[in-house]
């Protein structure tokens, strides 16, 4: 019967949703295409499962069961309407526009946007927002980027992006004045969540983006606590924010440890990757009391987290920001 076919199809949709999320890159599926397909599969699986449940009627014998199964799709539909209709409409009422796009080291670009006709938004250092650039917010074309500007300044919002995909490679082509719609802020990767005696930042490549937002914010506050930045990159020329990080050492109690995978022959700093030996050489004796922020590609996060655990750092003092959604 069709109710059985609906249940089987819903199960297949859930399996397909999971497989495409875990192995998106292996299937060479573009991020935008994956998001659209993800939404369709999720809605389809839910709708077909409800069709199956109401068709079988096994879980609808009691009135309270009927109320529950009718209320659930109503709530889900309301949430879907809020995300897909109300939020885009609200973003249309509070537009932004590109003020400038400037080039950074390491094939990165900093996007500065300013509010149009409103006061803008506030955020906490380390958070991110979803940006829709040059398109209607009703179109599924938003991308998540970390704030790199200081949370203490009222100027334009800044996001630094590395050329890694189709959209990020085109970012530099947008002209000043292009409309931008912002959904945010979001994220629990925040420096204000834990009043520690000091912080340790461990960044790989463009994983330095939220870290820069944190460092700029702490510098504007005149923070005097000890800070440590372990920054892994391919070579010296690829170190994004290199000059500004050096300048921040004059404003903060900041020790910077650059770790280069392929340094020049005369490089005197750390080589290879951020390992337990590198951390042990540079962290202070009271390392267990510090709070640690890790941000970068997945292959970097796992070994760094393991190295911290080997050094006895409690799990509750380690925060991670992953640049991989699926």
Describe this structure in words.
- It contains 8 helices and 12 strands.
- By secondary structure, the protein is an alpha/beta fold.
- The protein has a 6-stranded antiparallel sheet with strand order 4-3-6-1-2-5.
- α8 links the parallel β11 and β12.
Which percent band covers the strand fraction? 15-25%
What's the number of helices?
8
Give the oligomeric state of the chains in this entry, treating copies of one chain as homo and distinct chains as hetero: single chain
Low-pLDDT segments: none
Radius of gyration (CA) equals 23 Å
Order of helices and strands: HHHEEEEEHEEHEHEEHEHE
Q: How would a crystallographer describe the biggest sheet?
A: 6 strands, antiparallel
Q: What's the N-to-C terminus distance?
A: 35 Å
Q: How much helix is in the residues?
A: 25-40%
Spatial order of strands in the largest sheet = 4-3-6-1-2-5
Shape: globular
Number of DSSP-assigned strands:
12
Structural class: alpha/beta
Give the secondary structure arrangement, pairings included:
Blueprint: H1 2-22, H2 31-56, H3 63-93, E1 96-104, E2 108-115, E3 128-133, E4 143-146, E5 157-162, H4 166-170, E6 179-186, E7 199-204, H5 208-221, E8 227-233, H6 242-248, E9 254-260, E10 270-271, H7 276-282, E11 291-296, H8 298-310, E12 318-322
Parallel strand pairs: 7-8, 7-11, 8-9, 9-10, 11-12
Antiparallel strand pairs: 1-2, 1-6, 2-5, 3-4, 3-6
Helix pairs in contact: 1-2
